[in-house]
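Predict fold of Non-specific serine/threonine protein kinase; 401 aa.
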Amino acid sequence: MVTSSNKKLTILVINLFIIIHRIQYSSAILDPADFLALQSIRKSLEDLPGSDYLSSWDFTSDPCNFAGVFCSGERVVTLNLGDPRAGAPGLSGVLDPAIGKLTNLTEFTVVPGRITGTIPATISELKNLRFFAISRNFLSGEIPATLGELTNLRTLDLSYNQLTGSIPWAVGSLPALTNVVISHNRLSGPLPAFTSQTLTRLDLKHNNLSGSIPPGFIPSSIQHLSLALNRFTGSVEYLLPQLNRLNYLDLSMNRFTGPVPGCVFSFPITTLQLDRNLFSGPVQPFNEVSIQTVDLSHNMLYGEVSPLFSTVQNLYLNNNRFTGSVPNTLVDRLMDGNVQLLYLQHNFLTGVPIKPTEAIPVSSSLCLQYNCMVLPVQTPCPVEAGSQKTRPTTQCMQWKG
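Predicted 3D structure, encoded as tokens:
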């Protein structure tokens, strides 16, 4: 006859067996190398105040249930370090080299925070990695050349860090790249040749990269190209015509020279930013320009202003060497309110078909000062245009275009 105490003992033994079984099952579900790698990664990181991301990393339970950890079978395949919610404070610490032990990883990201130190060279052991993004942290040192071993890598985002050195040529040679974003760092040296024929986005703005960019160094598949705020030199006369799929182009604040290819004004983009370079020569679009904003300011462009710019909503031609009279069609569209901004200051223009009695629409901005003419109308100009209304006659006589 089974007593009540025996029943309780039996139930207790069964429950204990279930608990033991679950513990054994949960610890066996993950490959031991991955388990130890996650432990090392956890020891090198801390939650910033206000973050509780690491609170779920309790190694007495199944690591595949940790926040940001996703498994397939017995291996970790995705590791998203930090809380992805907007405005979360992220993590501090360093990236432990043990990350290289998670050899089945296909995705590795770190949310914005205060991760310092270098990128572990052991990342090169993650041969299955397709997505690698550590943005808006404080990584320093150089980009490991061994990243060039990640032949399956498609997205590389190391933007907004403190990385130095050059971009390894081996990284440019990765065959499957589609997105490369390494903007807002301290990189220097030349641009490597990017050979991936699937590359659609290349964003390297706000670094110290230099040198010329030969044709073929950027594949024709590129759609988004930002090289602004670097020290690139040389001509783009033969480079840009090959990039006929561009829908975003920003080459501003470099030292590019030579002419602006007429084909760029036919690209399907909304903003063309070529300002603050050393471009020279006349500007000759092939057809009416349908780009909303064209910024060619602060260059050495000359010749007459093309009437094909009359369809541009915001046109910056200031601080160049344009001569002649402003086209009637451009002025007409300005007076109709179709041109919202027209900056022509600091050129050598000699006329503009506006009567002194005409009023510029309130919705439009016009600046004409410091040209070779008496201003027909007085309009507000940006502070950087200065206070002098007309260019000295001696300069106007010397400059022939």
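The chain has three domains: 23-127, 139-143+152-258, 262-401.
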